[in-house]
Amino acid sequence: MHIRVERRRDKDSGEYFEMVDGLMFKDGFLYKPVSIKSIHTQGIQPSFDELEKFKKPGDDMNGDMSSLNTLFSNRKKGHFMKGDAVIVVKGDLKNLEGWVEKVEDTTVHIRPKISDLPKTLAFNEKELCKYFKPGDHVKVVSGVQEGTTGMVVKVDGHVLIILSDTTKEHIRVFADHVVESSEITTGITRIGDYELHDLVLLDNLSFGVIIRVETEAFQVLKGVPDRPEVVLVKLREIKSKIDRRTSAKDKFNNMVATKDVVRVVEGACKGTQGPVEHIHKGILFIYDRHHLEHAGFICAKAQSCILVGGSTGGRRGNVCTGVLVLLVKKI
After folding, report:
1. In the chain, which residue ranges form alpha helices assigned H by DSSP?
2. Shortest CA distance to 229 belongs to which of 299, 281, 276, 305?
3. 275-317 pLDDT tens trace
4. How big is the CA angle at 46 (ends 43 and 47), to the nearest 5 degrees?
5. Separation of alpha carbons 235 and 188, rounded Å
6. SS3 for 95?
7. Domains in the chain and their CATH numbers?
8. Which of 87, 151, 236, 298 could lock onto 131 through a cystine, CB 3.0 to 4.6 A?
9. What's the pLDDT tens digit per position in 182-204?
10. Rounded CA gap, 273 and 263, in Å?
């Protein structure tokens, strides 16, 4: 093949490119001018491999702040929670380890691992990254490997090497994309009409959420708020899926719907907090990613919980209370 290649300086950028049939190439990449209006940047989660492809020779992926900033800019609200192990990635206290004590908007208060420092220190959330150690069992919650579970076998700065529960292969992910979890992916998420995390009605009229799918059966966390009760059920023992959208009242008569965040204030799970995944007969199934049992699900009575951000006033049953909550959420 006789392909003519010219080295030419681009008048707009001032950089040199190899020109082939009017196309600009550099370091194996094709460069094309595009309108900024045609580029979508919100909610993009680049994989580790994608970021690695674009790093320049000599760049350290762990210390490359442009790579970290790309990840941090797409963090979801509530990324850090109390109890998370974190490490400082910017500033004078870089590499300081600690645990999250509380989160206020973009400010994260941590308890440092070093005893000589103050009891708590405040950081902007972009100065922190999650921290894990070999042996931790984790779940990937964002990026191309989302849903994968496995054990951390190596920590390389802000990059984790995980042994997948399903494929038994090593995968590389950013620590920022991971949470500690006891959930184990089996590779099976569905049998018949039912899949993982469905709310189901059993043939004895009890109900619960599917927390694990095995080869020929389901593990179901039943709707018993006083104590966690997990049963193994066959497909034929499930009567139907419960799809109804419903709501319930919390301790202060605030209306709670699915995806609302609640805190348990009474009972065995007191102090736990998370979004409501299912509601049935006044029972809430709450997902708390810090709860290492039952795939993170907690069962509690709605009256034993409070809506985070809801009213705590004494005018119980007042219709205005529910309207106020809706308005605040909408804003």
Report:
1. 48-54, 65-72, 319-330
2. 299
3. 999 999 999 999 987 777 788 899 999 999 999 876 665 434 4
4. 140
5. 14
6. coil
7. 6-35 (no CATH), 69-130 (2.30.30.30), 137-180 (2.30.30.30), 190-241 (2.30.30), 248-330 (2.30.30.30)
8. 87
9. 777 666 788 888 998 999 999 88
10. 4
